[in-house]
């Protein structure tokens, strides 16, 4: 018997085990259920002499009372299986042969929870630090689960949620809570929702839920102003004399990033193996970005080359086999704040501002083509690079000068 259910097929077949007879000499009867090609067997605690079984009709051949009672029981079992199958569909639960079997036996299937899946996701990501994820990325995942736990506890009055409790309304309420109670801006809240969406997709892929609660919810990032140093600010930073070694060292790493466009994690990982000389003797950095695995091809400009040479014999570089003595991102950002104060720079200096400065003031403002900047920065496409070009007054002025020339003659 076949029952169609949106691309899934249920087949119920009663059989006997001829070659596994009981001590009584009878053959045990079992049900083979097949859904989407996956089979499971259900033993129904009934048996019959093998010669009395009609496999074509899936019942006893007999006409006596015992045979009729057995056949009635088989009909009851079939009806129960069909009802279980129907119930699973109505509930939106995974419809599998295992689920039908477990429910027939009265077993309670494992209830997957939202925080349970999230925690397992974070655990696996933590084991992949250094290969597929950075430590800072996994820390963001940990922050994400902590925020979600807090929301579930304070707003849902529970310690956890089963997957069938995760609805579109739950997601919208979480978004609202992040923006109001946690005072997050839109893009910050969006990061939490994107991680949550990843967790939901894990559940969907495993068949633990059938409906996507994110359906109809659009996660659109707002464009924000890119912070970068002006040429004048960069020159002040380069020419500043520091009498504290740690500040000089952090300044040098920051300036190196300004002339290479490398992100903090990529500078941290930089070794001599990433330095390549071409046929003309020019020095290049070739390295896959940790974040996207896109290859960056970076000509080493003189300021960056001098910094590499300056730290060639530094004990940390020698011991770790790296090009530069990079400290932790947290400490570096703390020292950059101190450096900004000493240089009279009002902007909040962070390691990522150096990458923004490279893209805008060092490359695009000096008429390096968009395509080449994309290759230097390791962007997958120039759309990402165009975002930097939008903020440059100099590029706007350069384009508008052509308009000025065309119209000044006409007036």
UniProtKB/TrEMBL annotation:
Q: Can you supply a Gene Ontology BP term from the record? A: DNA integration
Query: Does Metal-binding appear among the keywords?
Result: no
Pfam families recorded: Arm-DNA-bind_5, Phage_int_SAM_5, Phage_integrase
Q: Which GO terms describe its molecular function?
A: DNA binding
Alphabetical UniProt keywords: DNA recombination, DNA-binding
Domain Tyr recombinase, residue spans: 224-402
Q: What SUPFAM superfamilies is this protein classified in?
A: DNA breaking-rejoining enzymes
| Similarity annotation | Belongs to the 'phage' integrase family.
This chain belongs to the protein called Site-specific integrase
